[in-house]
Amino acid sequence: MHSHHGHNHHHGTGKILVISTIATTLFVVLEFYFGLTAHSLALLSDAGHNFTDAFALLLALFAWYLQSKPADEIKTFGYQRGGVLAAFINALTLIGLSIYLLYESYLRFLNPTEVHEGTMIVVAALGIVLNVGILWGLRNQSKDDLNIRAAAVHMMGDALSSFAIVIGAVLIHYTGWLKIDPILSVLIALLIIWSAIDITRESLNILLEGMPRGVEMQEVVSALRGVSGVLDVHDLHIWTLGAESHALSCHALINDMPPSESECILQSMKRVLLQRFHIHHTTVQFEHAQ
Fold first, then answer.
1. 182, 200, 195, 175: which is closest to 86 by C-alpha?
2. The pLDDT of residue 249
3. Cα distance between residue 151 and residue 159, in whole Å
4. Per-residue pLDDT at 31 exceeds 80
5. Cα(first)–Cα(last) distance of the chain, in Å?
6. Is the dihedral of CA 191, 197, 198, 200 positive or negative?
7. Going from the N-terminus, what domains does the chain have, and what CATH number goes with each?
8. 207 pLDDT band (50/70/90 cuts)?
9. By the 8 A CB rule, do 63 and 83 touch?
10. How far apart are CA 78 and CA 230, in angstroms?
């Protein structure tokens, strides 16, 4: 029963990602066209941001497909890292795009250009509706999956930048101050960089076999040493396989006893690791005290 629900949930994610990718791609074409006709750098930079969103969703979809593939003889842990790799590439493209936007904004500061506020408002309002819709669709999955979260961060950044464009267009309309357009572009770029850095850090940590987020080495050692029958723990390694799947290997010192007796110590250790630290894959090697 449980696995059937998991399958439906998983299938739902794929469907949301497909619809979101198509909708975002269509919106990019629309926004780019109107950005050119309205001479708005803010709209064009948002179209660029949306283009990386479409790319992000495509990567998320590819990674989702990889993650759903079972382990095989070559990839014995499965393809869980596929999603993490996608999140990492995603975040890097965002940072690259933002740097380009900052440069374009600087040029626009030097030569402010007349913009069509009405077009900006209509297109940005459409963007808000689209991005909030996609965010709402991804809200459950983004808590557990770094890959989906990277895509959701893109969407949130977009919704916010579309909102800023609406406000900016209203301000341009009433004040006639054209530098508002490049200022908005700078703010959008900085917002994207800020959100992308966190995902870059977390995905890089997983790819470099770092400690899982929120897990402290000393806490794990103390918890294992606290298990009845365990005298000491050393050679401890903890790493992340996928966004939510952690693994551990260690050596544990116990009193000299036959394996049938040490089995209960092993089960206690596994239970502590699972309940307190959500570590599912555990390899424990016992050493006997002489």
1. 200
2. 94
3. 13
4. yes
5. 48
6. positive
7. 2-207 (1.20.1510.10), 217-289 (3.30.70.1350)
8. confident
9. yes
10. 32
Cα 4 to Cα 9, 11, 143, distances in angstroms: 9, 11, 20
Parallel/antiparallel/unpaired status of strands 246-255 and 230-240: antiparallel
So what's the pLDDT on residue 10?
Answer: 61
Q: What is the pTM of this model?
A: 0.68
**Residue 183 scores a pLDDT above 90:** no
- The Cα 287–Cα 232 span in angstroms is 10
| Cα 44 from Cα 32, distance rounded (Å) | 6
Q: Which residue has the tokens 């076999």?
A: 209
Given the structure tokens 């040493």, which residue do they identify? 225
Residue 286: pLDDT band (50, 70, 90) is: very high
